[in-house]
Amino acid sequence: MTVEGMYHEESIEIAAPAESIYDLVSDLARMGEWSPENRGGEWLDGGTGNIGDRFEGHNKIGEREWSVVAQVTAAERGREFQFVTGDPAEPFVRWTYRLAGSSPTTVTEVWDVEQLPPTLAKLTPEQLAGRAAAVRQAMAETLAGIKATAEG
Q1: Considering the domain boundaries, does residue 139 fall inside one?
Q2: What are the C-alpha distances in Å from 22 to residues 4, 14, 32?
Q3: What are phi and psi of 38, to 5 degrees?
Q4: Rounded mean pLDDT of 85-112?
Q5: Total count of domains within the chain
Q6: Cβ contacts of residue 43 below 8 Å, gap of 6+?
Q7: What is the pLDDT of residue 119?
Q8: Model confidence pTM above 0.90
Q9: Assigned domain for 1 exists
């Protein structure tokens, strides 16, 4: 169940094969090149991006920095890459990259807060709305950056 106001999908068309775009969106270290918030990440326990693999992602907004452990819940090259934070059975947040077609490929990024993580649970409704707006903007910037790289 999604927390009200905490769901967003953003799509972009990219003139590149779906498989090469998948390789970009599943490359944790490179995500920091495109996202204004994410600073990259690394696989834990020898993971490589398969379902069940875990990674630690690093983020920064202004002066606030934090890291979070996430687990891959979908990994189908050329079609979908998805991960969650928290317990995969009852996640806090689910991030999905869906790919449709191939050159051009429609890339859809989905942010779905299924339940508020402890850090967001402390926020007022106004602060949550601000967080949602910031995520929407960051998603658009991230997809534009991925597009520039994939088409470059």
Answers
A1: yes
A2: 29, 12, 16
A3: -75, 140
A4: 96
A5: 1
A6: 28, 49, 53, 54, 55
A7: 85
A8: yes
A9: no
CATH code for the domain in which residue 145 is found: 3.30.530.20
Sole residue written with tokens 């928290």: 86
Question: Among 40, 65, 66, which Cα is nearest to 55's?
Answer: 40
Polymer length of the chain: 152
Residues 108-131: what's their mean pLDDT?
94
Q: Is residue 2 part of a domain?
A: no
Residue 148's identity, in one-letter code, is A
Task: Tell me the helices (H) and strands (E) count for the chain, helix number first.
Answer: 4, 7
* Alpha-carbon span 8 to 57, nearest angstrom: 20
> Could you list the residue range(s) of the whole structural domain that residue 26 is in?
7-151
Which residue type, as a one-letter code, is found at position 111? W
Q: Which DSSP category does 27 fall into?
A: -
CA angle 67, 151, 8 (to 5 degrees): 45
In a domain, 23, yes or no: yes
